[in-house]
Amino acid sequence: MADDSVRAGASAQQQDGGASNEKAVSSNGEVAAGNQTLSKRQRKKLLKQQKWEEERELRKQKRKERKQQRRLQRQNHGEEEGGDNQGARKRPRREVTPSSLRLVVDCSFDNLMLMKDVRKLHKQIQRCYAENRRAAHPVQFYLTSLGGQLKQSMDEKDKGWVNWKDINIKTEHYSEVVAIEDLVYLTSDSPNVLEELDQKKAYIIGGLVDHNHHKGITFERAKELGIDHAQLPLSSFVKMNSRKVLAVNHVFEIILAYLEKGSWQDAFFTVLPQRKGAVAVDKDGATAPEKEEEDSDSDSDLDTPEQTEHNLTLSPNGQLQKSPNV
């Protein structure tokens, strides 16, 4: 019995010892593993990172001191050169006085144009928007009846149009947006000649690029709706080598130029492209016979030949730029 108890005690001690040894081995293994988790390079990198964090405030203070030093140097340099030179470096800001006159581009001719002509109209509208943003007397700009192929082109080629500022874009017809008695349709087929602009009126420009396929359609539309119509006094100041049908952006820009200069002749010669062969009329008012050529609904004179091969887009501030997709 005694031997059995001794053997049992010895066995228990051995088991306890084995367990303690296993603990020690396990503990040592973890320690060893812990020591092996970081290599020498990693430890150096860790120390470097710690030092970087500790010196963060010091670097911030040095940057602040350098900034103050540069500011003092600029001030001293400006005092030496004089205040006039410093003011001359600033670009003079153009004084802008918005006009109450409304200009409406009627986009209800979408179904009468091919997609290539719709894209030309899109570029002409872009130019109208850009010029109005830069104008000394920007008008109240409206796009009406927007939809169909034109909206598709704008969505595909110039997604930024949804961010355009200072423009009223409507899907409704202009007769639903502006009172009928305030409307004047600008059409070269009208017998009425526009002598002056009425700031209370809304002047409509037909948004159509058709290369003479639908002559007189804007005049007929105006008569059907019973609204006033007129043509720009082009023949009174200019004689041209081609028909006096102008692109949408040309009519738009001529009106902007007239608001700024107060002279139709100055406005015409500021805007009309050289290919139109425009010259001032003789003192007796004689004009050159008109040729039945393709009208300027085409946007071939909007840009240089290189630019017309690219799609254009507009920034929210009205700057024309090439599309990044081309």
UniProtKB/TrEMBL annotation:
- Annotated region (Disordered) at 1-97, 279-326
User: Per the record, what is one GO cellular component?
Assistant: nucleoplasm
Transferase: present as a keyword of the record? Answer: yes
Which Enzyme Commission number(s) are listed? 2.1.1.221
Stored Gene3D superfamilies? 3.40.1280.30
State the Gene Ontology terms under molecular function. Answer: tRNA (guanosine(9)-N1)-methyltransferase activity; tRNA binding
Instruction: List UniProt keywords, sorted A-Z.
Output: Methyltransferase, S-adenosyl-L-methionine, Transferase
Give GO terms for biological process: tRNA N1-guanine methylation
Biased amino acid composition, Basic residues: 59-74
Question: What catalytic reaction does the record list?
Answer: guanosine(9) in tRNA + S-adenosyl-L-methionine = N(1)-methylguanosine(9) in tRNA + S-adenosyl-L-homocysteine + H(+)
User: Which chain positions lie within coiled-coil regions?
Assistant: none
Q: Which InterPro entries match?
A: MT_TRM10-typ, MT_TRM10-typ_sf, TRM10/TRM10A, tRNA_m1G_MeTrfase_euk
- Compositionally biased region (Acidic residues): 291-306
Comp. bias (Low complexity): 8-20
Looking at the record, the residues that make up the SAM-dependent MTase TRM10-type domain are: 89-279
Specify the enzyme's EC class, one word: transferase
Residues in the active site?
Answer: D210
Q: What does this protein do?
A: S-adenosyl-L-methionine-dependent guanine N(1)-methyltransferase that catalyzes the formation of N(1)-methylguanine at position 9 (m1G9) in tRNAs. Probably not able to catalyze formation of N(1)-methyladenine at position 9 (m1A9) in tRNAs.
Report what the protein is called.
tRNA methyltransferase 10 homolog A
Q: Which organism is it from?
A: Seriola lalandi dorsalis
